[in-house]
Amino acid sequence: MTPIALVRDFSYASITTRETKFTEKNNKYMAEPSNRSLLDDAKALLEQNGSLSEAALMIEAAIQKGQLGEGNYEAWILLGETRNMDEQEEVGIRALLEGVRKAEENGTPGTGMMVGVVKLNSSTKH
Q1: CA gap 126, 105 in Å, rounded
Q2: CB 55 within 8 A of CB 46
Q3: SS (H, E, C) the chain
Q4: Maximum CA extent, the chain
Q5: CATH of domain 35-124
Q6: Cα-based angle 47, 57, 11 (whole degrees, multiple of 5)
Q7: Alpha carbon distance 18, 53 (integer Å)
Q8: Can you give the residue ranges of every domain in the chain?
């Protein structure tokens, strides 16, 4: 089975991306002014090896505010990567799959991202 087929089987059999739920119902970053780029703030925090959970909350708020970044999927991919680094694999995989879905909707080939999801998924099982 090809890596792409594995991801497609995994995404439809195990996790439906439409059920993506955010972890914090009262996310403090939702109150931030609209002119502030929470996605950029989260990237800066991650570059400084800051708190993964704080960065994820910033990214979740950015997504809810429509700050999706490059190609309207960047925030989803970054959320998935961040949640996976924070050992929240199921939430991370859901976000990655949502990013792939959004990328494909926008005409961006998602093959490279799909292979990354397969590698990430197989590495978390060991």
Answers
A1: 32
A2: yes
A3: CCHHHHHHHHHHHCCCHHHCCCCCCCCHHHHCCCCCCHHHHHHHHHHCCCCHHHHHHHHHHHHHCCCCCHHHCHHHHHHHHHHHHCCCHHHHHHHHHHHHHHHHHCCCCCHHHHHHHHHHHHHHCC
A4: 47
A5: 1.25.40.10
A6: 95
A7: 22
A8: 35-124
The pTM of this model reads 0.72
Return d(Cα 50, Cα 113) in angstroms, integer.
25
Please list the pLDDT of the chain residue by residue as tens digits (126 residues): 333 433 444 433 334 444 456 777 788 999 988 788 999 999 999 999 999 999 999 999 999 999 999 888 999 999 999 999 999 888 888 888 888 888 888 877 654 555 455 445 545 554
Please answer whether residues 76 and 96 qualify as being in contact, where contact means their C-beta atoms are separated by less than 8 angstroms.
yes
- Rounded to whole angstroms, the Cα distance separating 109 from 87 reads 27
CB-side neighbour CA atoms (13 Å) of 22: 19
